[in-house]
């Protein structure tokens, strides 16, 4: 794997644009050519870019020759161990993660693993207080959105009060103002955050950012998995507008598609 390919993989993992990844260390144009292996990047510039994104340089260089996507490999193994309900495998993965460099990406792995061990695997009704505090610290103290922090936030939005949600969702919409320029995985993640936010607003009777979120969902191009998100966005818009007929039409479509259990959890007018 070349340095350009490694930077490209890293940028995708972080959910950053080329301009954000270049971080004013080099121009976007030059950085783009580095990713495409047209230009070589100087050592000082590379180290500055890694430092800007809190990436351990030793870890980066150690994995240059690794053909697998490290992030996907770890998360896939956690997912497989969870599906197999194997606590032993999860604990083995924990031992490996504990040996990784201490940075924001490793912290993400640790939090995902802890959520799996303490919440998802035992089907706990509540997230333990200590873990809640860790999750909030990861999001609030390091308020620098990327695919990892967005995924953590999407899964744990119910630990925040409505004012915190208003602030955090507002910063997400500001940073990712044009959803159609994003990679599909990032687009889906933010779309899911929007739906979860609308659900929280309904439960807590808050309307502060509802229109901004609904408008954001409506601007997403209708393709692939985001079609489901757009459909749910329309459903929540109808709930807030008390449009019973449209809600019934959408629930009928969802039931026909095999989502009856999901429909039962949706808010009703």
UniProtKB/TrEMBL annotation:
Superkingdom, natural source: Bacteria
A Pfam family that the UniProt record links to this protein: HTH_3
Entry-linked InterPro entries: Cro/C1-type_HTH (IPR001387), HTH-type_regulator_Rgg (IPR053163), Lambda_DNA-bd_dom_sf (IPR010982), Transcription_activator_Rgg_C (IPR010057)
Gene3D superfamilies: lambda repressor-like DNA-binding domains
GO molecular function: DNA binding
Domain HTH cro/C1-type: from-to ranges: 7-60
Protein name, UniProt field: Helix-turn-helix domain-containing protein
Taxonomic lineage from the root: Bacteria, Bacillati, Bacillota, Bacilli, Lactobacillales
